[in-house]
From TrEMBL:
Bilayer-spanning residue ranges: 99-119
UniProt family annotation: Belongs to the bacterial diacylglycerol kinase family.
Segments forming a coiled coil: none
Topology class, membrane: Multi-pass membrane protein
Residue numbers annotated as active site: E72 (proton acceptor)
The protein's name in its UniProt record: Diacylglycerol kinase
Listed cofactors: Mg(2+)
Positions of substrate binding: E72
GO molecular function: ATP binding; kinase activity; metal ion binding
């Protein structure tokens, strides 16, 4: 019989967190861009503390860096799947990887613009 609903047992939820943190650790260890983005996130947090940014500005930071790191994780997922499934040169694989990288770039540019807008007000 098809099981539609998953168990809500606390152990299942604990395992889900374990798997999620394992995925993030994989990205930290294996993806240089993810490490760079974490470093930039840390520097932005330090800058935010130094300049006493507002709650709204903190919210923008959390949203933009959350999306940036999430986009990088999605890009890593796409690359891993493509590399696993397609072993030869493929125009389709290249396009999919390029689109995924473009998603990260778009998110990174948006995050950079937010950083500039927020810090410009505090540096002047």
């Amino acid at each position: 019989m098809l099981k539609i609903f998953k168990s809500h047992h606390p152990i299942r939820h604990a395992k889900s967190f374990k798997y999620a943190f394992s995925g993030i650790l994989h990205a930290i260890v294996n993806e240089a861009n993810f490490r760079v983005q974490i470093l930039i996130t840390i520097l932005a947090i330090v800058g935010g503390i130094k300049f006493s940014i507002t709650a709204t500005e903190w919210a923008l930071f959390v949203l933009s860096f959350g999306f940036l790191l999430g986009a990088e994780l999605i890009n890593t997922i796409v690359e891993e799947i493509i590399d696993h499934l397609i072993h030869e040169e493929s125009e389709c694989a290249r396009i999919v990887k390029d689109l995924s990288a473009g998603f990260v770039l778009t998110t990174a540019i948006t995050t950079l613009v937010i950083l500039i807008i927020v810090f410009q007000q505090h540096v002047q």
